[in-house]
Design brief:
Blueprint (H helix, E strand, L loop, with lengths): L3 H18 L20 H8 L7 H8 L9 H8 L6 H12 L10 E12 L9 E3 L6 E12 L4 E9 L5 H11 L6 E5 L6 H9 L3 E6 L18 E10 L4 H5 L4 E3 L15 E14 L2 E7 L8 H10 L1 H12 L11 H23 L13 E3 L1 H13 L9 H6 L2 E3 L24
Parallel strand pairs: 1-5, 5-6, 7-8
Antiparallel strand pairs: 1-3, 2-3, 3-4, 6-10, 7-9, 9-10, 11-12
Helix pairs in contact: 1-2, 5-11, 11-12
Pfam families: DDE_Tnp_1
Family: Belongs to the transposase 11 family.
InterPro entries: RNaseH-like_sf, Transpos_IS4, Transposase_11
Length: 436
């Protein structure tokens, strides 16, 4: 355990060196790009992307090259970054994340959460798919939508998919990520209301997974077509058949046959198969005096009682916390470019660093004392700083003793606390307003 941070660092460095030895597979012009000896090698370019903080690009270069008089300019670094294929950092993310241990400690299940978050960066009208006008102003900004599968047990992003904000499609993104993930065995996927869809349910079922997805109430969602009890709380199972078109038999049993509306997508219909049976369990929970929630699942009542489902769905909030940590602790809200190609490089680098830090943190055991009023956990904001300092130590420089330092910074776990969610638009952090 004491050497896990060094093992993780060496693992990531080894993967980068392996890519460097086969750099022609990751550059736009094989045989030409990075073929000559320059100040910034292929390996240095990857390491620089993984070392970026929230300072200006010039200050980041000063730190990275240890204030050497012959350090390269920011223009030279941008030219080197421009030689990388668009999927280079995504490949590094996939390989590194696949090597990290993933634990199934919720009654033997892997828990995954699906969600998305918007990331803003300075305005660039040359990227129309990302450009968005700011209401009531002459200004605009650019934005990209981050879709993610987050492994709740291990605290890391298992899959990410980045979409320009005007091509945002969380349903198709989730289906793509389901096809890409290598997690197998007993899995439960949790998601919020935006993912309620028969097509999504079917993809999860075909994967052999279970799901707990929050549903919409009223006349817009799946619930409106089901014969639900007139009760404040219920737990009912509905066998349904998704069908492509109405006929006499389907019209006579509307509570059983659910026709996909015109224009809606369902990927499992063929010329031969026009019906798709599935069994849904629908739970209505009273959260407070004037608030209730609808959950859709395929887990049985015997295996997953209502109380466990409530606990499981509450755990989904960890992905929201992870997005916040990625933006503000790892610096994904302070990027160094307006070009989408470079933005994607930096965002994949931030997710790699997030998984790097959380994997180390997960392997630190914090002993609890009976004299403490609360249970304690390691402070994440301080832990990120320590892990990043260890990562950024130049070759030949001893990194800090990560494990000992992490144990010095702990915060109480206060599960009873809750705060109202007051989302507000966040201002773009422009290049000229960076941390000194």
């Amino acid at each position: 355990m004491a050497d896990y941070s060094l093992i993780t660092k060496h693992k990531l460095l080894h993967m980068m060196k392996k890519m460097s030895r086969n750099s022609d597979s990751y550059v736009k012009r094989p045989g030409k790009d990075f073929s000559r000896s320059r100040k910034i090698s292929f390996f240095d370019t990857l390491r620089f992307l993984l070392s970026l903080g929230a300072k200006s690009l010039d200050k980041e270069l000063l730190d990275f090259f240890s204030y050497r008089p012959d350090l390269p300019t920011s223009s030279a670094m941008l030219q080197q970054r421009g030689k990388l294929k668009p999927n280079t950092m995504k490949v590094l993310f996939s390989v590194f994340t696949a090597s990290l241990p993933k634990h199934s400690n919720f009654h033997g299940y892997h828990l995954l959460a699906a969600d998305g978050s918007e990331l803003s960066f300075p305005e660039n009208k040359k990227e129309p798919l990302c450009h968005r006008k700011i209401p009531n102003t002459q200004k605009g900004k650019n934005a990209i939508h981050l879709n993610a599968l987050y492994h709740l047990n291990s605290g890391i992003f298992d899959q990410v998919l980045l979409q320009p904000v005007h091509e945002k499609d969380e349903h198709s993104a989730l289906i793509t990520m389901l096809a890409q993930t290598e997690i197998s065995g007993k899995v439960i996927l949790t998601a919020d209301r935006g993912y309620e869809s028969y097509n999504t349910f079917a993809h999860i079922l075909e994967k052999g997974w279970n799901f707990v997805i929050r549903g919409r109430q009223g006349d817009r969602g799946i619930l409106s077509s089901l014969a639900i009890p007139d009760q404040e709380q219920f737990d009912v199972e509905y066998p349904v058949v998704i069908c492509k078109k109405h006929c006499r038999g389907t019209k006579e049993q509307p509570e059983f046959y659910k026709r996909i509306r015109s224009g809606a997508k369902f990927d499992f219909f063929t010329e031969e198969q026009t019906e798709y049976p599935m069994k849904l369990r629908v739970i209505k929970l009273k959260v407070s005096e004037d608030l209730s929630e609808i959950l859709f699942t395929n887990l049985s009542k015997e295996e997953m009682p209502v109380g466990m489902l409530q606990e499981l769905y509450r755990m989904r909030w960890m992905i929201e916390t992870a997005f916040s940590q990625l933006k503000y602790n790892l610096g994904a809200s302070a990027l160094h470019s307006k070009r989408i190609e470079y933005v994607l490089q930096e965002l994949y680098a931030k997710v790699i660093l997030f998984n790097y830090c959380k994997s180390i943190l997960f392997h630190i055991s914090l002993p609890q004392k009976t004299s403490w009023k609360y249970d304690y956990q390691i402070s994440l904001s301080t832990a990120v700083d320590i892990c990043l300092k260890s990562w950024r130590c130049p070759n030949g420089t001893a990194p800090p003793d990560v494990e000992i330092l992490l144990l010095k910074y702990k915060v109480p776990i206060r599960r009873e606390r809750s705060f109202p969610r007051t989302p507000s638009p966040k201002a773009v952090i422009y290049f000229t307003y960076r941390i000194a």
